[in-house]
Amino acid sequence: MTRSLYRLPGTLITRRRLLVASAGAAALTGLGTAPGRLLAQTPLRVAGIYTVPVEQQWVSRIHLAAEAAVARGEIAYTFTENVSNTDYARVMREYAESGVDLVVGEVFGVEQESREVAADYPGVAFLMGSSFKEDPSLGNFAVFDNYIQDAAYLTGLVAGAMTESANIGMVGGFPIPEVNRLMHAFMDGAREINPDIRFQVAFIGSWFDPPRAKETAFGMIEAGADLMYAERFGVSDAAQERDVLAIGNVIDTQPEYPDTVITSALWHFEPTLEAALARVREGDFAAADYGIYSHMEYGGCSMAPLGTFEGRVPEEVMALVAEREAAILAGEFTVNINDEEPRSS
């Protein structure tokens, strides 16, 4: 397929990487020396910088939320995917120089460099996925991540009821705190149903390597796992080929694996993005941790419907899921947060 090409200073972008919400976007002016108030009817200019394809589950949720804001006429959105860590700061600078209002992305491998760039552009707001907290001295740099431990815990309850071998395989990308807490929450839920469950845990050292994730999952299945926690793409493929079950993460993959994926812990980035856009538009964007907007109480996560597995999970377990969800939303139950690297047991 032929794709038209567009160019920002020093970088080549395909039509797939460049979305413009309205023709009037080009007429927008800069923010000056601080993220300032803009006219209510003026779309904000937002740029996304991603180290992986926008199909990757984590980034796809950011991309989806941005596209929804485009459809509402709230923003003009451009994005660049597959940016290497060594090139990340350069792309940040180019977008900042182009006059965008908000940059959103993920800086897990370039924490220091990204903050140095933000310091050079105080008139641009930066909302970045990060393993570190906000720095009050850097007022235009806010952080977030998919803190969806609430939903992960609920899927663990389901998994605990559905494994027959009491052996669950878990394949993750990197053992960073944000991933670790989801795995631990899932494990806590499963153990609540069956304290004797064993877990096989492995990390593939990549955010997007489906073949490696698949091979790792195959090894766990051969070692007795009859249910897989699919933190990465590729795991559900292995589960499907070996006729075992899986629990998804971040996105709902049951349509692709109707006989394999029971449910998933879903991340909804819309509350995070909407909160940031409101602050930019009001001129009071500041250093903050937007991770709270991933919590269930803000609508930032949920457990996917059982769909094709409706009626196959024990009724008493689904009653417990509903009870726990209601308690979480009411502030009466708090899922334990454990950011330590999980180990096989």
Could you characterize the architecture of this molecule?
The chain has 345 residues and is an alpha/beta fold. The protein folds into two domains: 5-145 and 269-293, Response regulator (Rossmann fold); 149-268 and 314-329, Response regulator (Rossmann fold, 3-Layer(aba) Sandwich), CATH 3.40.50.2300. It is 34% helix and 19% strand. The chain has helices spanning 57-71, 85-98, 111-120, 149-162, 177-193, 210-222, 235-242, 270-282, 315-329, and strands at 5-8, 11-14, 44-49, 75-80, 102-106, 125-129, 141-144, 167-172, 198-203, 227-230, 245-250, 261-267, 301-303. It has a six-stranded mixed β-sheet, sandwiched between helices. Mean pLDDT is 89; it is low at 1-34.
Outline of the structure:
This protein has helices at residues 57-71, 85-98, 111-120, 149-162, 177-193, 210-222, 235-242, 270-282, 315-329, and strands at 5-8, 11-14, 44-49, 75-80, 102-106, 125-129, 141-144, 167-172, 198-203, 227-230, 245-250, 261-267, 301-303. It has a 6-stranded mixed sheet with strand order 9-8-10-11-12-13, with helices on both faces. It is an alpha/beta fold.
Give me some keywords for this one.
single chain; 345 residues; alpha/beta; Rossmann fold; 2 domains; six-stranded mixed β-sheet; five-stranded parallel β-sheet; 9 helices; 19% strand; disordered N terminus
